[in-house]
Automatic annotation (TrEMBL):
This is Lipoprotein signal peptidase. Belongs to the peptidase A8 family. It comes from the Bacteria. Keywords: Aspartyl protease, Cell membrane, Hydrolase, Membrane, Protease, Transmembrane, Transmembrane helix. GO terms for cellular component: plasma membrane. GO terms for biological process: proteolysis. Its main location: membrane. Pathway: Protein modification; lipoprotein biosynthesis (signal peptide cleavage). It comes from Idiomarina aquatica.
């Protein structure tokens, strides 16, 4: 019976359009940077605050394990593929009405796919967004990283605002009105 219910209702997979869109935007921006910039070239966008700076990231966030000798490429790829599989399962199981959770899963999934695509094609991730202030630089990042960060923030928000409780209350109110 539970499998039939799962098949009949709309699932969070409806949010995959966002995943596809974000992967396309991520890959197009990375292709543009790789074609238009020399490695380590930097162009000022907002003076004293924001540049486009083309770099290769062989590690993970903040270049973690970037000097690992190559094994980290496959390590981070396997982790991202596993996380992507879990997120797809969760999207499939979630009702479409859990929009905050589905949105967060779709964004994290897009970031994971975007960076895995880079690792598979190039052996590194293309980063180019460079935020800085008075000599302090945040590590360069890309659209995929932004999607992961926004998705994680939404997931934290979801921890404080639980859709399931809202849906349970609606269901109880509807039963009480019968």
């Amino acid at each position: 019976m539970p499998n039939q219910t799962l098949k009949k209702r709309a699932s969070g997979l409806r949010y995959l359009w966002l995943t596809v869109l974000m992967v396309i935007v991520d890959q197009i921006t990375k292709l543009w940077v790789a074609a238009e910039f020399e490695l380590y070239e930097s162009r000022v966008i907002i003076d004293g605050l924001f540049n486009f700076t083309y770099v290769h990231n062989y590690g993970a966030a903040f270049s973690f394990l970037s000097d690992g000798g190559g094994w980290q490429r496959w390590f981070f790829t396997v982790i991202a593929v596993a996380i992507s599989a879990v997120l797809l399962i969760w999207l499939r199981r979630n009702p479409v009405s859990f929009w905050r959770q589905n949105l967060s899963f779709a964004l994290i999934l897009s970031g994971a796919i975007g960076n895995v695509a880079d690792r598979m094609m190039y052996g590194y991730v293309i980063d180019f967004l460079d935020v800085h202030y008075q000599g302090w630089h945040w590590p360069a990042f890309n659209i995929a990283d932004m999607a992961i960060t926004i998705g994680a923030a939404l997931m934290l928000l979801e921890a404080f605002v639980d859709n399931r409780r809202d849906d349970e209350r609606k269901g109880q109110n509807q039963e009480g009105n019968k």
